[in-house]
Design a protein that fits this description.
Blueprint (H helix, E strand, L loop, with lengths): L2 H11 L10 E3 L5 H13 L4 E5 H7 L9 E5 L5 E14 L5 H4 L8 H19 L8 E12 L1
Parallel strand pairs: 1-3
Antiparallel strand pairs: 2-5, 3-4, 4-5
Length: about 150
Amino acid sequence: MTVDNFWQEFLEKTNKDKSTKYIESFYFCFTEDMASELLDLVLSGKKTATTSSLLAFEKANEPIPTVGSFSIITDFHENPRCVIETTSITTLKFSEMTFELCRLEGEDDNLESWQRNHRKFFTEDGKEVGYEFSEDMPVIFEEFKVVYKI
């Protein structure tokens, strides 16, 4: 099923206005294994947040999620799997992240593990997108809820 067909199905089955738009469709991370692992965490309800680089949004000229916006999460092969709705947005420096926040991502057992994994991710993402990771880099911490899944 295409992303657009999935979106139309979501609108129909949830009685949303047909003019409702989603801001993006995406899969998590750079590898199929990580994309699958993180998707499973979302679908099971263990992952209810994600952190993105504000610089990446700016470089790609993409809209930053806002409370109430919808996104489609796909698997690594871009097959749509669920719709999420943003429930909260917090902008802070990477160095200001707390375990209280990052534990909502469902991936790490402590802040140090989250920092290590995200330093690696943001360094790699920065090389691809065109920004440089720093501890003072602004990040977007997005909390969400799954509102539709197949």
